[in-house]
C-alpha cells in the first residue's frame, strides 16, 4: 500500500499536462501494474513463504484428492515385456547424457487416480504405504528431479508392488497414457509380488513394453540380466520390530524353518531331517489356535509350543528360506535381520541385488532336490565362515533390505552404475560391512611386481645450507650403480644454491629445485623431475652409507616396491603408565618405522603424502618442522597394511667419530616431541596403522665365511 | 507531443503488464477464474502434485497377512513335478542349468570331463587341439564316459564361418549320430567364429540341442546366463600352456602414458558393424587421442571407398600399432564385424586399459569377472563422450585399472589352458553350488584357478585375503615331522627335533608322519611334551604324503620338517614371526637357486652358495596349510608320481607351485646353510643327500616341472631376513634371538 501511494503521488509530476480523466485512468493503470509487479516479485523471490504455504497445504492433501483419470475401453495397451531388452537396445541413454556428477536424474509422475469407464479403480489398494515410502524416499534423494525434461528415468506413481491387488489390463492402459510413456522407455516399475494363481509367473504380468522392472522373485527365465533389477520382497515386520544386532557365534538351534506356507512335500522332507538330527533342528508352523491377522503373523508354533517370530530367528545359526508359490519370500528379509544365515532353496531364483551383492558370503544356496542333504552340507561349513556369514547377512539387511528407502535407492544406484560404469561403486563398497571397511586394506600397489633394475632410482636430497656436507653426500651417492638422477631440493629461500661449476662432477644428471617456502613437505613433493618409480630420500648429512648398502637397499626395494625400505629403524611403544604411545630410538629387537633420512620408497607415496594425507597432518608437520618421517610411515602403513623393511645393521649415519648414534636423537625434548607426533597422528588416523616386525633384510651371504670378492654386497657396515 | 507521451505511457504500461505475466506465470490461470469448482481445485494444487512428496495419513499395506498365507496354499502341483516340467518348457534358447543340464551325472564322481576319442581323417585346427590337450592334461579329465559329468566333442567346432578354410563340413549330420550325444545334454561346445559375411549371425550351422556354448563374441541377446560361457577370442598362436607375462613392469607415477586413447584398425565401409568405426574420426585429434582406420581390406575395397578413405589411409600408415599399444593409457576396443576382437586381449596384456565400444557384447567370463575393475565400458551411442569420459577418470583409478588388467591377463587369459580351465571351473562352480568361489576369489589375486573352494569356502582359510578381510592368521603353527627310519634310540635326531619344536611358544601341535616300513612304535617311546603329539601312519608311504592336507592340522601355519633336521627353538620362533608378515610365501632356512644353462639350453639347479636364491628347502620351512591342499589337488598325477618314484624333488615342486601362485620368491631367514647332520658330515649313515644321482635327479625335475608349468615360475631374491639385532654390537642379553648368533 505504501509503495503504491508513493508512486501515485509522483504521477502528476511525470505527466503534468494530461487531461484529468485520462490522467486518473493512467495513474490507476500504472499503480495497479506496479502493485502487481511488486506482489509478483515478492511471491517469486521469497522462497520461504512458498514452502511454508505448501507445507501448510500438505496436511490437507490426501490420496483421495489426486486428480481422477478415466480410462476408456479402447485406451491402448502396451506390448508385453520384451525378453530381449538390454540397456543398449531398450534404454535411451541420451536422456542421461554426460554428467560430471555421474548421477542419473529420476522423475516421479504426479499421483493420479485411474478408474475404468465404470468408475472402478484399477487397483484395490491404490497407493500402498510401502510405495508411498519408496517414492518419497526417492524424492528426498539426490537422484530426484521435478523437471521432467531433465529426467533420465521415470517412475510412475502407479503402485504395482503387489500384482494381486491390481487389474492387469487396466493398469497397463494407465501406464500407456502417461505423458512421457514412449513405449515404456526409461520407465522403472517396482514389483514385489508378481504373478498370481494358479501358475504364479515370476515377473509382473502387466504388459509394460520396454519398462525396466525392479522385481522381487525373478527366475532365471524372466530376469533380463543387466536390464532388470532383482529386489527383495519387503517384510513389513521390519518396520514394527526392532531386533538388536547379535554377536556372531553359535546359536541354540542349528537349523530353523519358520515359514508357514511350505509345500507338504517339503514339509515332510524337513520332518524327516528333524527325525534324523533331533534337537539341532526346529520346525515351526502357523499356530492353529490363533486367528489370522497381524498378531498371528508374529507367532509360530511347534507341537503346541508358541514362539515369538521373528525373535526366534535369532536363536538359530541357519534359517531355511524355501520357495513357496513364488520364488521371492519376505522371510528372507526377516532371516537376514535376525543375523541368521539364510539357506535358500529356490531353484532358478535370482537373488536380490545379485548384480552387485556377493551372496556366497552371506548365504547358502542349495538345490531343492538336495533338501535331504541340507544338514550334512551345512555341517561342512567352517565355524568362522558361519560367523562371517551371520555378520554379512545382518549387514545386507541393514544396508539394502531394511526399508523401502534402502530398497529403492539401492535399485537406483545399480541402474546408475550401469549408466556410468566407470564411476560404479566397487565390490568392496557394496559388500564390506563397516567393520571390515575399517580394518581391511586394499593396497593401491597390489600387483606383485618386481620392477626391473634398469630404470634405477632418483635420490632426493633435502638441504638448507650445509653445502659441504651436501657435496659429500652427493659424491657418495653418485657411486651407487643404480642411481639414475640426483635431485637437490634447495629449501633455503634466503640463499642461492652454489654456482653450477662448484657442484661435484657426477655421472648422472643433477637437478636443483628451489622451493618457495622452507617446508619439510617439500622433500615429499612428487616432482616431475623424478622419472623413476623408486625414490631415495636422503638427508644432506647422511655420509656414512656405503654404495653397497645403498645398492642393496634398492635391490630390496625392488622386491618390496610397496613398502618403505630404509636404514635407521625406529619403534613405537605403548606406554602403560601414561596410557599413550611413545617413540623409541634405542636399539631394540623390533622395528615399526624407518626414518626417511635414508629410505627408498615408491614415488606414489610422494603423491599420497602431498595430496591425500589425512586431516591436517601435512600442515601440522610443516608448522612444527618435525616428524615428516613418522607421518610418511603412518601413511604407507595405513594404506598398505604392511610394515617397513629395515636393511642392513647400519646404526651410525652421520659422523664416524661420534659415539652417539645420532646427535639429534638423544635430545630429550626431541624424543618427547616425536612421541607427541605419534599420538597426534594416531588420533587423526583413528587407529594405529604401524606394524611391528622383528626382522631386517641382509644380503644372502652377509657375514658368511665366503670370499668377499664373490659377494655382491661385501661392504656392509656393522655399525 | 501529447500523443507521443500517451503512446509512451501506453507502451510502458503494456511492457509492465507483459513483465508481470512473465514473472508471475502462475497467475495466468487466475485470470481464468470462474470455471467450475472442481477444475480450480486441481489447478491450484498443481504445484504440490508436480513435486512428489509423502502422503500423510493411513495407507494400506501392499500385501496383507491373510493374502500372503492363503496364496501359497493354493499350490497343488508338487514342486518336484514342477521342476521336471521345466526341462520340457525351457529348452533351446531358453536353456538354463536347471532345465538343460543333468546334475545326477556329476554326483557320483564329481566334476569329470570326458573328451570324445579323435577320429582319423577328421581335420582339426591347432587351436582346437590345444583345447582338447588342455582338458586331457587337467585334473578334471576322465577317459571313462561313464564317470563323466561334462562331455567335449572331438569335432572341431571353433570356426563356423562357412567361407573359412578351417570350416568343418557336415557337422549337422555327424554330431547327432554320436553315441553319447544324448541331445547335447552335458556337452560343451567351443566356438570362436560363427556366421559369415554379410550378417555374421551367431548360428553354428548345426543343432546344439541341450549343449552349452563356450563362445567368443557372444551377444547378450543370445547368451544364456549361467548356462553359456563367454570366452575371449584368441589367435591360433596363443600358447597352450604357460603364456606370456603382462607387459606392465612398473607403476609409473603419474600414471599417464604418451597417448591417452588409441585405436588402429580396419574400417568396414559397408555392412554390419561399420557405423562405430566410421565415426571414430570425429574423436581423433592426432595428439593424445589417436584413432586410425584404414579402408584397405578385401580385394574390392576401392569400389566402396568414400571421401575420407585416402586421408584416413595416409594417417593410418604414419603410426606403428605396437608403439601405440604400449604407450597409451587407454585402448579403444570397438566392435568389428563380430562383437569381440583380438584387440581386447592385446590391450589387456599391454596394460592398456580397454575402452569397450561394443554394445551387447557379453564380455569374456562375465559371469565371474567384474570388468568394471579392469576396463572402461563405453556405449557406442555415446562415442563423442568417450574422450571426456576417459579424461575424467582419476589417476588412482587408472593405476588400479591397469594393475587389474595384468592380474586378469595372467590369471585367466594368457594361455589356451587358462581359458579352458577357467571355463571348466565356472561350470564346476555352477554344478557344486554350495562349494563355489565367491566373487572376491575370482577378482583378486591370485585368482580363481588357484583358490579351490573344496578346501574351504571361507576366505579367511586361504593365505591371500587376510588384509582384505582385516584379519590375521592364527598365531600358532603345527610341526609335521616326516619320519622314514625306524625308532631305535632315544638320542636319535628326530627325538631332539620333536622336543625342540614342542618347546616353541608358537607351537600348537606336533604331527609325526610315520612313513617308515617298520610298524609304529609304542606311544610311550615318544618324548613327553607340553603340546599334543599326533602320530599318523602314512598309508602309501610315499614322499608326497608329507604334503597331504591332514585334517589333524589345526593351524594355518605348517612347519614342515625332515626327521634329521637340526633346528633350534629360537630359529623356529623367529621364522614364524616372519611368516606372520608373509603368510602367502614359504619361509625357510637353506636356500637353493636355479639358472638358465644356455649351453645345454635347459634349466640348471645349484646348491652352491650364491648371492641370490629362488627356492628354500621344505625339509625345514614354514608355509600356509593351503599349499598342502594345492599340492595334492592342483598338481597333476604325472608330476606327483614322478616325485614319489624318485623320493626326491618334492621341495622343488612345492617351490614351483607357491611361486606360480604368488609370482614372488620364497623368503630365506637367518644364515643357516645346512640343516642336517648328514649334510654337516657328522654322520656316516647313508642319506639321500649322499646319493650321487640325487643331484642329477633334481636337475631333471626342474626341467620337467618347468615344462608342465609352461614357464619358469621361480623368482630370485637377493636378501635374507635376520633378527633386527643380528650380529650387532650390543649385549647379547638385549637380543631376543640369541641362539641364532651362535651358529
UniProtKB/TrEMBL annotation, chain A:
Residues covered by the Exostosin GT47 domain: 101-381
Membrane topology qualifier: Single-pass type II membrane protein
Alphabetized Gene3D superfamilies for the sequence: Spore Coat Polysaccharide Biosynthesis Protein SpsA, Chain A
Segments passing through the bilayer: 24-46
Gene Ontology MF: a single term: glucuronosyltransferase activity
EC number: 2.4.1.224
Major location category of this protein: endoplasmic reticulum
GO biological process: heparan sulfate proteoglycan biosynthetic process
Domain Glycosyl transferase: from-to ranges: 457-702
Coiled-coil features, chain-numbered ranges: 256-283
UniProt cofactor(s): Mn(2+)
Subcellular location(s) per record: Endoplasmic reticulum membrane; Golgi apparatus, cis-Golgi network membrane
Functional note: Glycosyltransferase forming with EXT1 the heterodimeric heparan sulfate polymerase which catalyzes the elongation of the heparan sulfate glycan backbone. Glycan backbone extension consists in the alternating transfer of (1->4)-beta-D-GlcA and (1->4)-alpha-D-GlcNAc residues from their respective UDP-sugar donors.
Subunit annotation: Part of the heparan sulfate polymerase, a dimeric complex composed of EXT1 and EXT2. Could also form homooligomeric complexes. Interacts with NDST1. Interacts with GALNT5.
Family: Belongs to the glycosyltransferase 47 family.
Protein name, UniProt field: Exostosin-2
Organism, scientific name: Cynoglossus semilaevis (Tongue sole)
Classification of source organism: Eukaryota, Metazoa, Chordata, Craniata, Vertebrata
From TrEMBL, chain B:
A GO CC term assigned to this protein in UniProt: endoplasmic reticulum membrane
Cofactors (names): Mn(2+)
Membrane topology per record: Single-pass type II membrane protein
Limits of the Glycosyl transferase domain: 477-726
Family that this chain belongs to: Belongs to the glycosyltransferase 47 family.
Biological function: Glycosyltransferase required for the biosynthesis of heparan-sulfate.
Protein name per the record: Exostosin glycosyltransferase 1
Organism: Cynoglossus semilaevis
Amino acid at each position: 500500500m505504501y509503495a503504491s501511494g508513493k508512486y501515485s503521488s509522483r504521477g502528476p509530476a511525470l505527466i503534468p499536462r494530461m487531461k484529468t480523466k485520462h490522467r486518473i485512468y493512467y495513474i490507476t493503470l500504472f499503480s495497479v501494474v506496479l502493485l502487481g509487479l511488486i506482489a509478483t516479485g515478492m511471491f517469486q523471490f521469497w522462497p520461504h513463504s512458498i514452502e511454508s504455504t505448501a507445507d501448510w497445504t500438505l496436511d490437507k492433501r490426501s490420496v483421495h484428492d489426486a486428480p481422477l483419470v478415466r480410462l476408456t475401453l479402447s485406451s491402448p495397451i502396451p506390448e508385453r515385456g520384451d525378453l530381449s531388452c538390454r540397456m543398449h537396445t531398450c534404454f535411451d541413454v541420451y536422456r542421461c547424457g554426460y554428467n560430471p556428477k555421474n548421477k542419473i536424474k529420476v522423475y516421479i509422475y504426479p499421483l493420479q487416480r485411474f478408474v475404468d469407464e465404470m468408475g472402478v479403480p484399477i487397483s484395490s489398494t491404490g497407493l500402498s504405504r510401502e510405495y508411498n515410502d519408496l517414492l518419497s524416499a526417492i524424492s528426498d534423494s539426490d537422484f530426484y528431479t521435478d523437471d521432467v525434461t531433465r529426467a533420465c528415468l521415470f517412475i510412475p506413481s502407479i503402485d504395482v508392488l503387489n500384482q494381486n491387488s491390481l487389474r492387469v489390463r487396466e493398469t497397463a492402459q494407465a501406464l500407456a497414457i502417461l505423458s512421457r510413456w514412449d513405449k515404456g522407455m526409461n520407465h522403472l516399475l517396482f514389483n514385489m509380488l508378481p504373478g498370481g494363481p494358479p501358475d504364479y509367473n515370476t515377473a509382473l504380468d502387466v504388459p509394460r513394453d520396454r519398462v525396466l522392472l525392479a522385481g522381487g522373485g525373478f527366475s532365471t527365465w524372466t530376469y533380463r540380466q543387466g536390464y532388470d533389477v532383482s529386489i527383495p520382497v519387503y517384510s513389513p515386520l521390519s518396520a514394527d520390530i526392532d531386533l538388536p544386532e547379535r554377536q556372531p557365534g553359535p546359536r541354540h538351534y542349528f537349523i530353523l524353518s519358520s515359514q508357514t506356507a511350505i509345500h507338504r512335500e517339503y514339509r515332510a522332507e524337513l520332518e524327516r531331517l528333524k527325525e534324523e538330527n533331533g534337537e539341532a533342528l526346529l520346525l515351526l508352523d502357523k499356530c492353529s489356535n490363533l486367528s489370522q491377522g497381524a498378531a498371528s503373523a508374529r507367532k509360530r508354533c511347534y507341537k503346541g509350543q508358541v514362539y515369538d517370530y521373528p525373535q526366534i530367528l535369532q536363536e538359530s545359526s541357519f534359517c531355511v528360506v524355501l520357495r513357496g508359490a513364488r520364488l521371492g519370500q519376505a522371510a528372507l528379509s526377516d532371516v537376514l535381520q535376525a543375523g541368521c544365515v539364510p539357506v535358500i532353496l529356490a531353484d532358478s531364483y535370482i537373488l536380490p541385488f545379485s548384480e552387485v551383492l556377493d551372496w556366497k558370503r552371506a548365504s547358502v544356496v542349495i538345490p531343492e532336490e538336495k533338501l535331504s542333504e541340507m544338514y550334512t552340507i551345512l555341517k561342512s561349513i567352517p565355524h568362522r565362515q558361519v560367523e562371517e556369514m551371520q555378520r554379512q547377512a545382518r549387514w545386507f539387511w541393514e544396508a539394502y533390505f531394511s526399508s523401502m528407502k534402502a530398497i529403492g535407492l539401492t535399485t537406483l544406484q545399480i541402474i546408475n552404475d550401469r549408466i556410468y560404469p566407470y564411476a560404479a561403486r566397487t565390490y568392496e563398497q557394496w559388500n564390506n560391512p563397516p567393520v571390515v571397511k575399517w580394518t581391511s586394506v586394499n593396497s593401491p600397489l597390489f600387483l606383485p611386481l618386481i620392477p626391473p633394475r634398469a630404470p634405477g632410482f632418483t635420490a632426493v636430497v633435502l638441504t638448507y645450507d650445509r653445502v659441504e656436507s651436501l657435496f659429500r653426500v652427493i659424491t657418495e651417492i653418485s657411486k651407487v650403480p643404480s642411481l639414475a638422477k640426483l635431485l637437490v631440493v634447495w629449501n633455503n629461500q634466503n640463499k642461492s644454491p652454489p654456482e653450477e661449476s662448484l657442484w661435484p662432477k657426477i655421472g648422472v644428471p643433477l637437478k636443483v629445485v628451489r622451493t618457495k617456502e622452507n617446508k619439510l613437505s617439500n622433500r615429499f613433493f612428487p616432482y616431475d623431475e623424478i622419472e623413476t618409480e623408486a625414490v631415495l630420500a636422503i638427508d644432506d648429512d647422511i655420509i656414512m652409507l656405503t654404495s653397497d648398502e645403498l645398492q642393496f637397499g634398492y635391490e630390496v626395494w625392488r622386491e618390496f616396491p610397496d613398502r618403505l625400505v630404509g636404514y635407521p629403524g625406529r619403534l613405537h611403544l605403548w606406554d602403560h603408565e601414561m596410557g599413550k604411545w611413545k617413540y623409541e630410538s634405542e636399539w631394540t629387537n623390533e622395528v615399526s618405522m624407518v626414518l626417511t633420512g635414508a629410505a627408498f620408497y615408491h614415488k606414489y607415496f610422494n603423491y599420497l603424502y602431498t595430496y591425500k594425507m589425512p586431516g591436517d597432518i601435512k600442515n601440522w608437520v610443516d608448522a612444527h618442522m618435525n616428524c615428516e618421517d613418522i607421518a610418511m610411515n603412518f601413511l604407507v602403513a595405513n594404506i598398505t597394511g604392511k610394515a617397513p623393511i629395515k636393511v642392513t645393521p647400519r646404526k651410525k649415519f652421520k659422523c664416524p667419530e661420534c659415539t652417539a648414534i645420532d646427535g639429534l636423537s638423544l635430545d630429550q625434548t626431541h624424543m618427547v616431541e616425536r612421541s607427541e607426533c605419534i599420538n597426534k597422528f594416531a588420533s587423526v588416523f583413528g587407529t594405529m596403522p604401524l606394524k611391528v616386525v622383528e626382522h631386517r633384510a641382509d644380503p644372502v651371504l652377509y657375514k658368511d665365511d665366503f670370499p668377499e670378492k664373490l659377494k655382491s654386497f661385501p661392504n656392509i657396515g656393522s655399525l | 507531443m501529447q500523443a507521443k507521451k500517451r503512446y509512451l505511457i501506453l507502451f510502458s504500461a503494456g511492457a509492465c503488464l507483459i513483465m508481470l505475466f512473465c514473472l508471475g506465470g502462475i497467475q495466468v490461470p487466475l485470470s481464468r477464474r470462474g470455471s467450475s469448482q472442481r477444475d480450480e481445485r486441481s489447478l491450484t494444487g498443481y504445484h504440490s502434485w508436480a513435486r512428489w512428496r509423502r502422503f500423510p495419513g493411513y495407507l494400506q499395506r501392499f500385501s496383507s497377512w491373510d493374502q500372503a498365507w492363503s496364496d501359497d496354499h493354493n499350490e497343488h502341483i508338487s514342486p518336484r513335478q514342477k521342476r521336471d516340467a521345466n526341462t520340457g518348457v525351457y529348452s533351446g534358447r531358453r536353456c538354463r542349468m536347471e532345465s538343460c543340464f543333468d546334475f545326477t551325472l556329476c554326483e557320483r564322481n564329481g566334476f569329470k570331463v570326458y573328451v570324445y576319442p579323435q577320429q582319423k581323417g577328421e581335420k582339426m585346427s591347432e587351436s582346437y587341439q590345444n583345447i582338447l590337450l588342455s582338458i586331457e592334461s587337467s585334473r578334471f579329465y576322465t577317459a571313462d564316459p561313464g564317470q563323466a559329468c561334462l562331455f567335449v566333442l572331438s569335432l572341431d567346432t571353433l570356426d563356423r564361418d562357412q567361407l573359412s578354410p578351417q570350416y568343418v563340413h557336415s557337422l549337422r549330420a555327424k554330431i547327432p549320430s554320436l553315441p553319447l550325444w544324448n541331445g547335447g545334454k552335458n556337452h560343451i561346445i567351443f566356438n570362436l567364429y560363427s556366421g559369415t559375411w554379410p550378417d555374421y549371425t551367431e548360428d553354428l550351422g548345426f543343432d546344439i540341442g541341450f549343449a552349452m556354448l563356450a563362445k567368443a563374441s557372444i551377444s547378450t541377446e543370445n547368451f544364456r546366463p549361467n548356462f553359456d560361457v563367454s570366452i575371449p577370442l584368441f589367435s591360433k598362436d596363443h600358447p597352450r600352456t604357460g603364456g606370456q607375462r603382462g607387459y606392465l613392469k612398473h607403476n609409473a607415477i603419474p600414471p599417464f602414458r604418451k597417448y591417452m586413447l588409441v585405436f588402429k584398425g580396419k574400417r568396414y565401409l559397408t555392412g554390419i558393424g561399420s557405423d562405430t568405426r566410421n565415426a571414430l574420426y570425429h574423436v581423433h585429434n592426432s595428439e593424445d587421442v589417436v584413432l586410425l582406420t584404414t579402408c584397405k581390406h578385401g580385394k574390392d575395397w576401392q569400389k566402396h571407398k568414400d571421401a575420407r578413405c585416402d586421408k584416413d589411409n595416409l594417417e593410418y600408415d604414419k603410426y606403428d600399432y605396437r608403439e601405440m599399444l604400449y604407450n597409451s593409457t587407454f585402448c579403444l576396443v570397438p566392435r568389428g564385424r563380430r562383437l569381440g576382437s583380438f584387440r581386447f586381449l592385446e590391450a589387456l596384456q599391454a596394460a592398456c586399459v580397454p575402452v569397450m565400444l561394443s554394445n551387447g557384447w557379453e564380455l569374456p567370463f562375465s559371469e565371474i569377472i567384474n570388468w568394471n575393475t579392469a576396463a572402461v565400458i563405453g556405449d557406442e551411442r555415446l562415442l563423442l563422450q568417450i574422450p571426456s569420459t576417459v579424461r575424467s577418470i582419476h589417476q588412482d583409478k587408472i593405476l588400479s585399472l591397469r594393475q587389474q588388467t595384468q592380474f586378469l591377463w595372467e590369471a585367466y587369459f594368457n594361455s589356451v589352458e587358462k581359458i579352458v580351465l577357467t571355463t571348466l571351473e565356472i561350470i564346476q562352480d555352477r554344478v557344486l553350488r554350495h562349494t563355489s568361489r565367491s566373487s572376491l576369489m575370482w577378482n583378486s589375486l591370485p585368482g580363481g584357478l588357484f583358490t579351490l573352494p573344496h578346501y574351504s569356502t571361507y576366505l579367511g582359510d586361504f593365505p591371500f585375503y587376510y588384509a582384505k578381510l582385516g584379519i590375521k592368521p592364527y598365531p600358532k603353527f603345527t610341526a609335521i615331522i616326516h619320519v622314514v627310519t625306524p625308532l631305535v634310540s632315544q638320542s636319535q635326531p628326530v627325538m631332539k627335533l620333536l622336543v625342540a619344536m614342542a618347546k616353541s611358544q608358537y607351537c600348537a601341535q606336533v604331527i609325526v608322519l610315520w612313513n617308515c616300513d617298520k610298524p609304529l612304535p609304542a606311544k610311550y617311546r615318544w618324548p613327553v611334551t607340553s603340546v599334543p603329539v599326533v602320530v599318523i601312519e602314512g598309508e602309501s608311504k610315499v614322499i608326497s604324503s608329507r604334503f597331504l592336507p591332514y585334517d589333524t592340522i589345526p593351524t594355518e601355519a605348517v612347519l614342515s620338517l625332515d626327521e634329521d633336521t637340526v633346528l633350534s627353538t629360537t630359529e623356529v620362533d623367529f621364522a614364524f614371526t616372519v611368516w606372520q608378515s608373509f603368510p602367502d610365501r614359504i619361509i625357510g632356512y637353506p636356500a637353493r637357486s636355479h639358472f638358465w644353462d644356455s649351453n645345454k639350453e635347459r634349466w640348471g639347479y645349484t646348491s652352491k652358495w650364491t648371492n641370490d636364491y629362488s627356492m628354500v628347502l621344505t625339509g625345514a620351512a614354514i608355509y600356509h596349510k593351503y599349499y598342502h591342499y594345492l599340492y595334492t589337488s592342483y598338481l597333476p598325477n604325472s608330476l606327483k608320481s614322478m616325485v614319489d618314484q624318485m623320493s626326491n624333488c618334492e621341495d622343488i615342486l612345492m617351490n614351483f607351485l607357491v611361486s606360480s601362485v604368488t609370482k614372488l620368491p620364497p623368503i630365506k631367514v637367518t644364515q643357516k646353510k645346512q640343516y642336517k647332520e648328514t649334510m654337516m658330515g657328522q654322520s656316516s649313515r647313508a642319506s639321500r643327500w649322499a646319493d650321487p644321482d640325487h643331484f642329477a635327479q633334481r636337475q631333471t625335475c626342474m626341467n620337467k616341472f618347468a615344462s608342465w608349468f609352461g614357464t619358469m615360475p621361480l623368482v630370485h631374491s637377493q636378501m635374507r631376513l635376520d633378527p633386527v639385532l643380528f650380529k650387532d654390537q650390543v649385549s647379547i642379553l638385549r637380543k631376543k634371538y640369541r641362539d641364532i648368533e651362535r651358529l
